[in-house]
Amino acid sequence: MQSARFSVFAIALSASVSIAACSGSPSVNQANVGGAANGPDNGGSGGSSASGGEQPGGLPIAQGGSLMLDLPDDLAGSPGLGGGPAEPYPNTLPTGFVPANMFGGYLVGSEITPADSDPHETGTESCGTKILAVIRDFKADGQNFEGTAIGDNRKMVLPDLGDDRKPVYASPPNAFTVKDPAQFADWYRTVDGLNKAYKLEIWFEPNNGVTSFQSTQFFPIDGKGFGNENNNHNYHFTTEIHTQFKYEGGETFKFTGDDDVWVFINSKLAIDLGGVHNAEDAAIDIDGRADELGLVKGKVYPFDMFQNERHTADSNFRADTTLNFVDCGTILPEVPK
Predict the structure, then answer these.
(1) What is the mean pLDDT of residues 322-328?
(2) Are 67 and 53 contacting, i.e. CB atoms less than 8 angstroms apart?
């Protein structure tokens, strides 16, 4: 759906994500960058920039054809960051990764079969800023992917994660953007003929005290799976992330994206952006919700996130966080429904 800003961890799902506490990356000065476009399917007016142009990937160009950056004082004189010879963004991207058009990058890996799993060992230190996810391509079926109702659709999933660490569909009338409820359980399961799953690594970039992933053109599987289906991008996919973090106090997590986005902390629903909608955002003050989520400082808790792109127009994924993720993501074994 619509373009937006997404924040997830040290890993957002159409969406953006931020993670482990870091600092030092430049932040985009939004005064110099055009707003995210509102797609025609949702009645938006469309984004604009001062110059009316875009650079590759859909990033608006500021007045005069340059992208202005706000830099921390300790980086203002650094080469490539305003004080020396410029280098192409980003110069710290991991090998093989594709840069997101704002912060971070991603790498699409091999196709996953239903028998595959790729567990990652849990440690006590931060795993860094690369998180493993699973992305599944779907066909535009005129039901749940294209053709469904458009609008916010909260309470589509139950407030507790299922025993298999997958969201549980809530019965209608809550889920009016789902025409085929029986298919919901397979959005995050690999089913032959229905979807095609791929490994996806997301790199979160240090960004002034948080780590961030932000793409306003989040189309990582263009040309893969069932293909683009005569569209300019592959618009129909789901993303799931399963990791863990150590709660130490003071952490935050913010996500911006479209379409559906659900974040579970300690298996309890912490962010509900369900629906087929423009980019929307939500933030979690972990301390403020610690009692509700059953968190005790010094302990490790699961973090599970689900994001869907179900409608043509734009795709935003942004995540910003100070969470200290202690494993780098897990591909769960396939469990029968």
Answers:
(1) 91
(2) no
Q: Identity (one letter) of the amino acid at 283? A: A
Distances (CA, A) of 331 to 199, 334, 337: 8, 9, 17
- Separation CA 14–CA 183 (nearest Å): 20
Which amino acid, 301? Y
Please work out, in degrees rounded to the nearest 5, the angle formed at the alpha carbon of residue 169 by the alpha carbons of 292 and 118.
80
Of the candidates 324, 334, 336, 333, the one whose C-alpha atom is nearest the C-alpha of residue 18 is: 324
Closest CA to 307 of 193, 218, 183: 218
Q: What is the DSSP letter of 146?
A: S
* 311 Cβ neighbours under 8 A, 6+ residues apart: 1, 41, 145, 146, 148, 150, 235, 259, 276
How would you classify the pairing of strands 210-215 and 317-321? Answer: antiparallel
Rounded to 5 degrees, what are φ and ψ at 64?
85, 0
Cβ pair 233, 3 in contact under 8 A: no
Say which DSSP state 196 is in.
E
Residues 227-280: tens digit of each pLDDT? 999 999 999 999 999 999 999 999 999 999 999 999 999 999 999 999 999 999
Q: What are phi and psi of 289, to 5 degrees?
A: -120, 15
Give me the residue label for tokens 């043509």.
312
Please give the single-letter amino acid code of residue 321. Answer: T
pTM of the entire predicted model: 0.74
Give the pLDDT score at 136: 98
Rounded to an integer, what distance in angstroms lies between the CA atom of residue 28 and that of residue 293? 33
Q: Locate all alpha helices (DSSP H) within 154-240, ordered by sequence.
A: 181-184
**What H or E segment, with its residue span, contains residue 292?**
helix 290-293
Task: Look up residue 215 and give its two tokens.
Answer: 């793409």
CB-based contacts of 72, cutoff 8 Å, min separation 6:
23, 24, 26, 208
Burial 296-333 (b: 16+ CB within 10 A, else e): eeeebbbbbbbbbbbbbbbbbbbbbbbbbbbbbbbbbe
